[in-house]
Specification:
mainly alpha, 2 domains, globular
Length: 412
């Protein structure tokens, strides 16, 4: 398990000057920063200045796309490129190549905001190249080092990009029903990635942090869960909604069972852990909501999207981008009041956003309060971590690209 994400726990060190080389050292640095910033900006635009969203990808379509592919998937790419370096011993993207990948992401965000068809087409090209390049770089590292255990991860990332392409094509074709189907497919592809990551790293993190804690890794059930999570979007695309609902029911139930078996009471005093436990549990509950919706339950389509998206992904993300950033930045693995406040604000944003879906007179107020809590949470994250993400590790340990000889030894 240690090969998945090696975390050191050095003593705190004074800040060094910002450095481009350090900033482009590993994927999490620019992409965590970009994703967190865009989480803040995109929600502020959607709730408080929707009149600025005048491009071909406008309104609800822009909001849904930017939250899933502009924010959540961006964080996932940053994590996978970073974890991939540990899985394989080969850094998939760094330096100018990582900078170019980040520029593609920036150009896509700008293009989707501009009110010209040409800008939309350019944004689509940049976006799809972003996901394709990231998946190809990760696949190359996995292939060159014969890391068979993670051979499917680049395919999951590529599937997320394909769902993005289908969603954007349906926007241009003005097909609302297809739009909602492809959005849910993208959401479920991202769910498969999130479940895979969480099921691997949460037990590892917990056993490292809590002395004497022994919890199961659930390898076999995790494989069944991943199969169910992947079957759901395939069944949805084929029009087999009851089968997709059954697959989501299985994946969600396994996630909740995993959390209970991981002894949640043992981590109740460790914020870096309980936020991840909560996020994984919310993911499982969100998948059950999606199953109920696909089975014909009396739920609006917005319910599964927000239950999985804001209650699941977002709670999991705010925990992951603090925990993994601290480890890879060479900082002590402990929270401060700023981080805990960010956790609580994201949780409040999720609760208020789900409350805003209820047909009550307070729905509008709940929506605005949720947006304010969300913006404040990611502002706190940026205030705390942006100065660290642009500087070298606290212990000054370099992360050079490995030599070919090292790659061959790893492969052998």
């Amino acid at each position: 398990m240690a090969e998945l994400l090696r975390i050191e726990e050095p003593a705190a060190a004074p800040l060094q000057p910002p450095q481009w080389r350090a900033f482009l050292e590993l994927g999490f640095r620019p992409l965590y920063l970009a994703g967190a910033l865009w989480a803040l900006v995109s929600i502020a635009l959607w709730v408080f200045a929707p009149q600025w969203l005048a491009g071909p990808l406008g309104g609800v379509a822009w909001h849904a796309h930017e939250m899933l592919w502009g924010f959540v998937a961006t964080i996932a790419v940053g994590f996978l490129l970073t974890a991939g370096a540990n899985w394989t011993g080969m850094n998939p993207l760094h330096g100018p190549a990582l900078g170019a990948l980040t520029c593609l992401w920036v150009l896509a965000r700008m293009g989707f905001l501009l009110p010209w068809q040409g800008a939309f087409v350019a944004a689509v090209a940049c976006e799809l190249l972003f996901f394709g390049w990231a998946a190809a770089a990760l696949a190359l590292a996995v292939w060159r080092t014969r890391n068979h255990r993670n051979a499917g991860v680049p395919l999951l990332l590529a599937a997320l990009g394909v769902a993005d392409a289908l969603f954007l094509r349906s926007v241009r074709a003005n097909g609302y029903e297809a739009l909602t189907t492809y959005l849910l497919c993208g959401l479920l592809c991202m769910s498969a990635i999130a479940l895979l990551i969480a099921r691997r790293v949460i037990p590892f993190f917990a056993m490292r942090a809590v002395g004497g804690l022994a919890i199961p890794m659930h390898t076999r059930s995790g494989q069944w869960q991943l199969a169910a999570a992947l079957a759901a979007p395939a069944c949805l695309l084929a029009g087999w909604r009851p089968a997709a609902a059954a697959a989501l029911l299985a994946a969600g139930a396994i996630a909740l069972w995993q959390v209970l078996s991981w002894k949640p009471l043992a981590v109740r005093r460790v914020p870096l852990l309980w936020i991840l436990y909560l996020g994984h549990a919310c993911m499982g509950a969100g998948l059950l909501v999606a199953a109920a919706h696909l089975a014909g339950g009396p739920l609006r389509a917005a319910w599964p999207v927000h239950a999985i998206g804001i209650a699941g992904f977002s709670v999991l993300i705010i925990g992951m981008i603090t925990r993994t950033a601290l480890g890879h930045l060479g900082r002590p693995l402990r929270t401060d009041r700023t981080m805990v406040a960010a956790y609580l604000l994201v949780i409040a944003a999720a609760v208020l956003r789900l409350a805003a879906l209820l047909p009550t007179a307070m729905a509008g107020a709940a929506l605005h309060a949720s947006a304010l809590a969300w913006v404040a949470a990611f502002a706190l994250y940026l205030w705390r971590f942006a100065p660290l993400l642009v500087r070298p590790r606290a212990d000054a340990r370099p992360v050079p690209p490995p030599s070919l000889a090292r790659i061959r030894r790893t492969a052998g």
